[in-house]
Amino acid sequence: MSAPRDQHFLVDRRAVEKIASFVDVSGRRVLEIGPGEGVLTRALLDRGATVVAVEIDPALVEELEVAFADEIAEGHLVIVPGDARKADLPPFDIVVANLPYSASSKITFRLLEIGFEVAVLMYQKEFAQRMIAPPGTPNVGRLSVMVQTYASVKPLLDLSPSSFRPKPQVRSWVVRVTPHEPPYPIMDRKTYADVVRVLFSHRRKTVRKGLRSGKDSFPPETIERTVAGLPDDLLQRRPEDLTLEEFALIANLMSGCPGNE
Predict the structure, then answer these.
(1) Would you call 239 exposed, middle or buried from its count of C-beta atoms within 10 A (0-12, 13-18, 19+)?
(2) Where would I find the beta strands (DSSP E) of the chain?
(3) pLDDT tens digit at each of 261 positions of the chain
(4) Residue 83, marked binder
(5) How far is CA 179 from CA 25, 134, 203, in A?
(6) Is 34 marked within a binding site?
(7) Which of 9, 10, 19, 197 would you call most buried, defined as having the most Cβ atoms within 10 angstroms of its Cβ?
(8) Per the annotation, does 260 bind a ligand?
(9) Residue 62 in domain
(10) Torsion (CA) 97, 103, 107, 109 in degrees, nearest 10
(11) Where does S-adenosyl-L-methionine bind (predicted)?
(12) Pair (34, 138) in one structural domain
């Protein structure tokens, strides 16, 4: 079977066994995104998981329904046809998934918003490296800040292109993502996300100029009150040099300003 565009089937059996064993899934509801031909699905079921599998490709959905007819009938597997970025998802405890490269960011943000106990996720290596990039390093960006605010990320496995069919052009990383409360108080999570997005949309500008470029996201008077309340040395830096605490400071000032909706 040929893989749909942007989908690379994991064919390395040893890697499949490792991924399915990184967390104890016995008796748990496990969300799997992009089950493909069901190799990882089978490994999770064999370990006692109840699997919720979200698959966007209708042809693969049909094949999965045939291959796992018994497990579906017994209630051990639920197949959700659709796009994991927006499909309605049944309740789940844990996530184990080989994410499609092009949707990695949106799916990751959505999962963090929904909440889960722990996730074992496969990403393009460069993407995963950005997730763990600390402030002040070249790879830091919106993804780094948002993920590190709400979760810890630990690399578990490095996979070569030969582990997949068809072979991707890049290496892949499997990581463990464990949600946690933000390390610093955040008054409003949407405002925080908007501040991070606006600043990194203008990452070559100083914080002062970046905030003032965000008039489509915040009222001008709110921006000016926030700028007036921030230390000058912070305003002169660029977003890649800010700590999580400083992003929280900016967002909390923005949240607390009169006129900010």
Answers:
(1) buried
(2) 9-10, 29-33, 50-55, 77-81, 94-98, 118-124, 151-159, 164-165, 172-179
(3) 444 456 789 999 999 999 999 999 999 999 999 999 999 999 999 999 999 999 999 999 999 999 999 999 999 999 999 999 999 999 999 999 999 889 999 999 999 999 999 999 999 999 999 999 998 888 999 999 999 999 999 999 999 999 999 999 999 999 999 999 999 999 999 999 999 999 999 999 999 999 999 999 999 999 999 999 999 999 999 999 999 999 999 999 999 965 454
(4) yes
(5) 17, 17, 26
(6) yes
(7) 19
(8) no
(9) yes
(10) 130
(11) 8, 10, 34, 55, 83, 98
(12) yes
- Residue written as token pair 């402030």: 135
Neighbouring C-alpha atoms within 13 Å toward the C-beta of 259 = 10
98 has binding-site annotation: yes
The domain that holds 69 is classified in CATH as 3.40.50.150
Nearest to 176, CA basis, from 29, 10, 23: 23
188 labeled part of a ligand binding site: no
The label of the residue with tokens 């309340």 reads 229
Residue 93 labeled ligand binder: no
